[in-house]
Design brief:
heterodimer; A: 127 residues; mainly alpha; Arc Repressor Mutant, subunit A; 2 domains; 3-stranded antiparallel sheet; 5 helices; 8% strand; B: 231 residues; alpha/beta; Rossmann fold; 9 strands; 34% helix; 26% strand; globular
Chain lengths: 127, 231
């Protein structure tokens, strides 16, 4: 797993979004086991309390569950997973709209830009 | 109970005031950064906790007692410079630690030294500076102490060694123990800190949970530090 932290955002929130992306992208499939807190904290180079806080919040959101004896697992509840994907996609779309409106595009222009990208992704290469 | 409490702590060296009216309460189970530029009083504060210095005024309590040989026995201290008898071999240094500190876990130290492929039959002074720093950190972190005082543990090492040191601190994390790390290189360690203390000219200008601080100022702790201590 890749752990890159940005400035100015609480680290536990960044851990939560990294883990959500992993779950959504299949890196952590439904039912798979999560490493122990300390191992994950070491891998990410963060404080174990911070990692614990992130995992606890993911548990509260129903994305992870703990089995007393065997550890922590990704939920297999389809409904919860669907909700998470939906909220992730809303977040990305919101960020897209916010960035593009900063450079002066209005709602229709943004939708048009998305549509044209979707139709001709090839011409949108860097450059 | 707080692991370390300072009440109106002041330390003067002659006319120079190194620490002025410091009030702190540090809980166990936390990794706390003590940040400030050179000469801000970090080492003085650590030495007062370690009972190497006596306060001019005020009081320190360690797990409810005043600093004494008894409290000192539960503090693992890493000074900011080489402090071991350098003519000794690394394995003899482990013997020394085992003899002096009842809480020294030799198996854990041997494991960490082996992970780094450090030759324990080598004389300490023949090791490179970075390796010496790693050996000192390993010996310190192999104690099952209640308080760890690490004075500039990452100042002189390369980025790979720094990552190793940070992982060593995390892997030895004990929910009952307090880790206090002094540094002027915050960017390197800020992700492992629960709380941060800013010292400026002997006074505490900030003591806050790091994630709360990031939210409040919308910056990394390092960026905020640079702003507060701008020359």
């Amino acid at each position: 797993m890749k752990w890159d932290f940005k400035n100015g955002i609480p680290i536990y929130l960044q851990i939560i979004s990294i883990l959500k992306m992993q779950i959504a992208g299949g890196g952590l499939p439904p039912g798979s086991q999560i490493q122990p807190v300390r191992d994950l904290a070491m891998e990410a180079g963060v404080n174990p309390n911070t990692m614990q806080r992130a995992l606890t919040q993911l548990e509260q959101e129903g994305l992870l569950y703990t089995q007393r004896t065997s550890g922590r697992f990704v939920t297999e509840d389809e409904e919860v997973l669907r909700e998470m994907r939906k909220s992730l996609s809303e977040q990305y779309v919101r960020e897209l709209f916010e960035s593009l409106s900063k450079i002066g595009m209005d709602k229709n222009e943004i939708i048009e830009a998305v549509r044209s990208y979707q139709e001709e992704p090839a011409v949108k290469k860097e450059g | 109970m707080a692991a370390i409490v300072c009440n109106n702590l002041t330390k003067r060296y002659g006319k120079t005031t190194a620490l002025q009216n410091v009030n702190l309460s540090l809980e166990p189970g936390r990794i706390i950064g003590l940040a400030g530029p050179n000469g801000s009083g970090k080492t003085t504060l650590i030495k007062l906790i370690q009972r190497m210095l006596v306060p001019t005024q005020g009081q320190i309590m360690i797990n409810g007692s005043e600093p004494s040989p008894e409290t000192k026995a539960h503090i693992a201290y890493l000074p900011d410079r080489d402090f071991l008898p350098d003519w000794m071999k690394v394995c003899a240094l482990m013997d020394l630690y085992g003899k002096y500190y009842g809480d020294f876990d030799r198996a854990s130290a041997e494991q960490m030294l082996a992970n780094l492929a450090i030759d324990t039959t080598q004389t300490f002074k023949k090791l490179s500076k970075g390796t010496r720093e790693k050996v000192q950190l390993i010996l310190t972190m192999s104690r099952k102490a209640e308080v760890y005082l690490l004075d500039e543990p990452i100042a002189g090492v390369d980025p790979a060694a720094r990552d190793y040191i940070i992982r060593t601190i995390i892997s030895n994390y004990n929910p009952e123990a307090l880790v206090l790390i002094s540094t002027h290189l915050i960017a390197d360690i800020e992700a492992v800190l629960d709380e941060v203390i800013f010292l400026k000219q002997g006074q505490i200008v900030l003591h806050e949970n790091t994630d709360d601080l990031r939210t409040r100022v919308n910056m990394s702790v390092d960026e905020y530090f640079r702003e507060v201590f701008k020359c």
